[in-house]
Design brief:
Elements: H1 3-6, E1 10-13, E2 21-22, E3 28-29, E4 51-52, E5 59-60, H2 61-74, H3 80-87, H4 115-124, E6 129-130, H5 132-137, H6 140-143, H7 148-152, E7 156-157, E8 161-164, E9 169-172, H8 175-188, E10 195-199, H9 205-218, H10 232-242, H11 251-254, E11 259-263, H12 267-270, H13 274-283, E12 287-291, E13 301-303, H14 308-313, E14 317-318, E15 322-324, H15 331-346, H16 355-361, E16 362-363, H17 365-373, H18 377-384, H19 388-400, E17 404-408, H20 410-413, H21 418-431, E18 441-444, H22 451-456, H23 465-475, H24 487-496, E19 501-505, H25 509-512, H26 516-524, E20 528-533, E21 546-551, E22 560-561, E23 564-565, E24 568-571, E25 576-580, H27 594-605, H28 613-618, H29 620-630, H30 637-640, E26 647-648, E27 665-666, E28 682-687, E29 692-693, E30 696-697, E31 707-708, E32 713-716, H31 718-723, E33 731-737, E34 743-753, E35 760-764, E36 789-795
Parallel strand pairs: 1-34, 5-13, 6-7, 10-19, 11-12, 11-17, 12-15, 16-27, 17-18, 19-20, 20-21, 28-35, 32-34
Antiparallel strand pairs: 2-3, 4-31, 8-9, 8-21, 13-14, 22-23, 24-25, 25-26, 28-36, 29-30, 32-35, 33-34, 33-36
Helix pairs in contact: 2-4, 8-27, 9-27, 10-21, 15-18, 15-19, 15-21, 24-26
Length: 797
């Protein structure tokens, strides 16, 4: 997007109050991601209506308990909420938390839950309903002016709806007619590549397998997914280094390790159940190093709510031994410095380097050692923003630990050089043989339940030939071999008119994607958009010429099919696969499960298909039997998934089997990138607030960062503010400059002084997604660079 495409070199979203702002086509609409409440604190004359007080309390504990209680009262879920809490993440007939992908506790905790998980489930279990009467009362144009919170807060969708352009309203449609509309439209396409099939992490493994089967039987690998925006860099890096696209550790390794290095993760908000692992690690004497531009609450101390003794005594446990704050993008230089320190120490202490492991299991070590030796400490300090003494302190923790785990999330991956940084993590681990043994290895943290399972079960726009061969043999189809489009590619193709049909399985694509106005235009260029959802959201209002809303069961709800109550499986961050069974009566008798919706779409689009779509839906065990024949590691699927805690998918690299060209773990020798901001510019990273899950915002508060009733803000270093003549809470204009020279801006945001490195700034997604140009994606992973946006920030005029 930019001047070359629309003649306007600068796009502006000016809506600090979260009321109305023009959409790209002139339609009145809420600021992307805007939330309820007037946000009066965003106005210079209304500063008293928000608060900012640095948070100095433990993570979780009574603060989380109070927040959950208030939320349950607000949502009128004082009965259903506690019932769900007792069922969530329990293997005996329980359902998997639809929030993060942290693995289930191995010790049989009765309350393996967290604040955000409870909120996520309660938000889904609401008693509010959005039916035909609601849509009859509100046009799409009117709803486009509502805040995103207000849209989702209306409640659960109850029946299929189709957009009527004559009245600008959604009107009821039968499931048969909805499937028929999609089927006719898909069959009328000139090419199967004119459709894209998006997946969010909420889709279970069985539905995922059917979804990719449908797309490939139709003839395309256009299977964009949320991994394209989060951990694509991790998969590509680990595959290049180790021959596997996943981490090699499990929760038992976390329980046995001597040192944990946590990079680019806001644990208390994005993977809160990790707090249990961190406090337990500290209690047994493990060292914990947090590496993040912001010192988050979880990187200090915590009280675990299910530890009743600590709750009763207000006893907090430390969750870190050392906190390092690199500049945005400086992680790779810091890791290189740690490796350099280990190699330098090995000259006098041979035990600092596991030479036997390196010689037996790795390739490219000498080139990497020469690279480290040739990288000056001055350059490492400049790029990382960390003093040499602090890097050496982190290296000392690593060197003195017999077993180390390095864990990371989007703070590492959503950068131009995300692949190189993850490979640098592997480099560091290889130096001391921290692979293939208990308590050691790489551990990416997935931010959404089953996003990893989606990829495992076939959602991949670049499928491996061996997988396609098995799919063809077992399922009797002729799958396409050419690569399809990922998320960025699909948005561009929609914008050009090359993709005419967009089907979204879950999520809120319009808000989750980068370059919000451009993404809106892309969706509105489609002939048909189909959204499979549980609640009303922005993606239903930013639609194609024809549009369908297809409501599905939530994970908390019972899925009754012809042979009885069904279960679905999910895969967590550590490759454990287990069953999830809903506990609650569906919100409406007209809801269908996601597998049933996919089967209905497939039969309508492929009327002559030999695939037994209806037979599969009668009993999900039949889907799993087919998956067992197609997917590596899913052998004997139906039996193994019913074992206590399910089963773990085999990771060859954990067994020191490396499916790389050399047959060994590969050292990477990428040069350090230059991440120092140019004079006058800042590196801005987008992030969630605490009271938020992806694009769903529960309130305008961010408890762990001390913010109440405000989202239109930017966190800045005080020296950077002073240099620009910006005072505390002053309104500022934020302008990003893309690679192609085009600019985007947000006006009237409030500057909040914060402990963040010089040259860095941070603010909330999805509001700030508008600043990330679609063209500014990593050339290594094709991920949007949402954690490293080049901006200028000036006082509002």
């Amino acid at each position: 997007m930019g001047a070359s495409q629309d003649g306007d070199p600068e796009r502006t979203h000016h809506d600090p109050a979260g009321t109305r702002a023009p959409d790209p086509d002139g339609r009145a609409g809420a600021h992307p991601g805007a939330h309820p409440g007037a946000h009066p604190g965003a106005h210079p004359d209304g500063k008293a209506d928000f608060t900012f007080r640095p948070y100095r309390h433990p993570a979780a504990g009574w603060g989380a308990a109070k927040s959950v209680t208030r939320f349950l009262v607000r949502e009128r879920a004082l009965l259903d909420g506690p019932r769900a809490i007792l069922k969530m993440n329990h293997e005996d007939g329980g359902f998997d938390c639809p929030g993060c992908a942290w693995p289930d506790d191995t010790k049989g905790l009765h309350l393996d839950i967290c604040e955000n998980g409870v909120k996520h489930v309660t938000w889904e279990m609401t008693n509010k309903r959005v039916g035909r009467a609601f849509f009859a009362a509100h046009t799409v144009t009117e709803l486009s002016g509502w805040t995103d919170h207000a849209l989702e807060d209306q409640g659960r969708l109850t029946e299929p709806m189709v957009y009527d352009p004559g009245t600008d309203r959604y009107v009821p449609i039968s499931w048969k007619d909805a499937f028929g509309l999609v089927g006719r439209t898909l069959r009328a396409l000139e090419s199967p590549h004119q459709a894209a099939y998006y997946t969010s992490g909420r889709l279970g493994n069985e539905a995922t397998f059917l979804y990719q089967l449908m797309a490939r039987e139709l003839g395309t690998n256009n299977l964009p997914d949320c991994s394209n925006m989060c951990h694509e860099a991790s998969g590509r890096a680990l595959t290049a280094s180790l021959g596997t696209g996943k981490g090699t550790v499990d929760l038992k390794d976390w329980e046995a390790t001597d040192a944990l290095f946590i990079l680019g993760v806001n644990v208390a908000s994005n993977a809160p159940r990790m707090l249990t692992s961190l406090t337990e690690a500290h209690k047994r004497g493990a060292r914990i190093v947090h590496i993040n531009p912001l010192v988050e609450a979880a990187a200090t101390r915590a009280i675990i709510p299910h530890d009743f003794r600590d709750m009763a005594t207000f006893h907090a446990t430390r969750t870190s031994s050392l906190n390092l704050q690199p500049r945005i993008g400086g992680d790779m230089a810091l890791l290189r410095g740690m490796a350099k320190a280990v190699l330098e120490q090995s000259a006098s202490d041979p035990k600092a380097l596991d030479r036997e492991f390196v010689d037996r299991h790795t390739h490219g070590f000498e080139a990497y050692r020469a690279l480290c030796a040739g990288t000056p400490w001055e350059e490492i300090e400049r790029q990382s923003g960390i003093d040499r003494a602090d890097i050496l302190a982190a290296a000392r923790v690593y060197r003195e630990a017999d077993r180390s785990i390095v864990s990371w999330c989007l703070g590492v991956t959503q950068h131009e050089h995300g692949v190189d940084t993850v490979r640098e993590i592997v480099n560091l681990l290889l130096l001391r043989g921290n692979l293939g043994r208990e308590g050691a290895g790489p551990s990416p943290v997935r931010g959404h339940s089953n996003v990893q399972g989606n990829r495992t079960c076939g959602i991949d726009h670049r499928p491996e030939p061996a997988f396609l061969d098995r799919l063809a043999e077992v399922c009797g189809i002729d799958p396409p071999r050419e690569h399809g489009l990922d998320t960025v590619g699909s948005i561009r193709a929609m914008h050009r008119g090359d993709i005419k049909v967009f089907i979204g399985m879950g999520g809120n694509f319009a808000l989750a994607a980068p370059d919000t106005p451009y993404t809106y235009e892309a969706l509105r260029s489609c002939e048909l958009t189909v959204q499979v959802s549980t609640k009303l959201n922005r993606s239903h209002l930013v639609h194609g010429r024809q549009a369908l809303i297809l409501p599905c069961l939530g994970r908390t709800e019972k899925d009754q099919q012809r042979t009885g109550l069904q279960s679905s499986s999910v895969e967590d961050s550590m490759s454990m696969v287990h069953l999830s069974v809903g506990m609650k009566r569906p919100a409406s008798p007209h809801l269908l499960s996601e597998p049933a919706i996919i089967a209905g779409l497939a039969r309508a689009a492929l009327p002559d298909s030999a695939t037994p779509w209806e037979w599969y839906i009668e009993d999900y065990d039949r889907i799993r039997d087919t998956m067992a024949q197609v997917l590596d590691g899913f052998e004997d699927f139906n039996r193994r998934v019913r074992l206590p805690l399910g089963f773990r998918i085999r990771q060859p690299a954990r067994e020191l089997v490396f499916l790389t060209p050399s047959g060994r773990a590969e050292f990477s020798t990428a040069p350090l990138p230059d991440v120092v901001p140019e004079p006058g510019t800042l590196a801005l990273g987008t992030m969630r607030s605490h009271d938020q899950w992806n694009t769903t915002v529960y309130s305008d508060d961010d408890r762990y960062r001390g913010v109440t009733n405000l989202r239109t803000l930017v966190f800045m270093n005080q020296d950077d503010m002073r240099e620009r003549g910006i005072g505390k809470f002053d309104p500022v204009d934020i302008i990003s400059t893309a690679r192609d020279g085009s600019r985007r801006r947000l006006d009237g945001y409030l500057a909040i002084p914060y402990d963040i490195p010089r040259g860095c700034a941070a603010g909330y997604m999805p509001e700030m997604n508008v600043l990330c140009a679609l063209g500014d994606h990593s050339t290594q992973s094709d991920q949007p660079i949402m954690k490293h946006v080049k901006v200028t920030i000036t006082p509002s005029s």
